[in-house]
Amino acid sequence: MTSPQRADPVRTCVGCRKRAAKRELLRVTAGSDAHGRAAAVPDPTATAPGRGAHLHPSVACYDLAVRRKAFGRALRVSTGISAAPVGDYLTSVTSTASEA
């Protein structure tokens, strides 16, 4: 008797609002930036504690999320939250991938 295959968990991208497998998305959590202000920070290993939001690892979805102010809503942070750390992470990942 074989066990049924488990389906990958599905999450919704806060940028484009499309559903995708959890492993295809970048998890983002509430944290603080280098100056101690509230910020959305990338969690590529998906191991940080607390509430998370998911985002396709693309600049287009990031721009949509910033324009809609989706990080604050998804992470349930009432004050203004900076998304710069996520943008910096995506820029470094895409520039590293293009160099390889």
How does this model look, in words?
The structure is a single chain. The protein has 100 residues and is α+β, with helices and mostly antiparallel strands. It has a single domain (10-99), classed as Hypothetical Cytosolic Protein, Chain: A, CATH 3.30.1230.10. Helix content is 31%, strand content 23%. The protein contains three helices and five strands, in the order βββββααα. The protein is globular. The N and C termini lie far apart (45 Å).
- Stretches where pLDDT falls below 50 for ≥5 residues? none
Broad structural category: alpha+beta
Task: Identify the CATH architecture.
Answer: 2-Layer Sandwich
Number of domains: 1
What overall form do the CA principal axes indicate? globular
Q: Order of strands across the biggest sheet?
A: 4-3-5
Helicity, in percent? 25-40%
The fourth-level CATH homologous superfamily is YlxR-like
Distance between the termini: 45 Å
By CATH reckoning, the class would read Alpha Beta
How confident is the prediction overall: mean pLDDT?
Answer: 90
Major β-sheet, in short? 3 strands, antiparallel
Assembly form of the protein: single chain
State the helix count.
3
Question: What's the order of the H and E elements?
Answer: EEEEEHHH
Radius of gyration of CA atoms, rounded to a whole number = 15 Å
Percentage of residues in DSSP E strands = 15-25%
What's the total count of β strands? 5
